[in-house]
Amino acid sequence: MPDVGDEVTVRPAERADLLAVVRIENESFPQPWPYDAFERFLGEPAFLVAETDGVIAGYVVADVTQQIGRALGHVKDIAVHPDYRGDGIGSTLLSRSLGVLAAHGAGTVKLEVRRSNDGAKRLYREFDFDSLRRVPEYYANGEDAIVMIRKLG
């Protein structure tokens, strides 16, 4: 198990990070995003990576869109490499992304989470996300999603 210590840097994702991001994605999800999905979010202020000792340990992809005249933040994807889970990197990434979304005008943030992903739901509840609704068969394998939402500020 790598020793993370306190040396975790969170910064905007760069093209050179994409292969590491895709590897983490592939190890984390049954229906992973392809490379080009991440490539499309390069330059988004809330596409962040967590780096420790030169290694990408996790990432978050989030953006802000206008809905009914209001800015809505959307956490689209977040994952931590299996070797670095339990070290607070997911919390750090989520916290930093919420700050970026707020700085870009989002008053509310939403996300979708697999109904079976208890660890992620627990993390989101720690960050004051509330379950809004269930979306049947949201994922390609037929699993339901839970839409969770949180007010900022």
UniProtKB/TrEMBL annotation:
Q: Which UniProt keywords apply?
A: Acyltransferase, Transferase
One Gene Ontology cellular component term attached to this UniProt record is: NatA complex
UniProt-listed Pfam families: Acetyltransf_1
Residue limits of the N-acetyltransferase domain? 20-129
Q: Which InterPro entries match?
A: AcTrfase_RimI/Ard1, Acyl_CoA_acyltransferase, Ard1-like, GNAT_dom
What GO molecular function terms would the record report? protein-N-terminal amino-acid acetyltransferase activity
Q: Which SUPFAM superfamilies has this protein been placed in?
A: Acyl-CoA N-acyltransferases (Nat)
Recorded hits in Gene3D superfamilies, A to Z, give: 3.40.630.30
Q: Any coiled-coil ranges, and where?
A: none
Cited NCBIfam families: rimI
What PANTHER family does the entry give?
A: N-TERMINAL ACETYLTRANSFERASE, N-TERMINAL AMINO-ACID N(ALPHA)-ACETYLTRANSFERASE NATA
What is the name attached to this protein's record?
Ribosomal-protein-alanine acetyltransferase
Question: What is the organism of origin for this protein?
Answer: Natrinema altunense (strain JCM 12890 / CGMCC 1.3731 / AJ2)
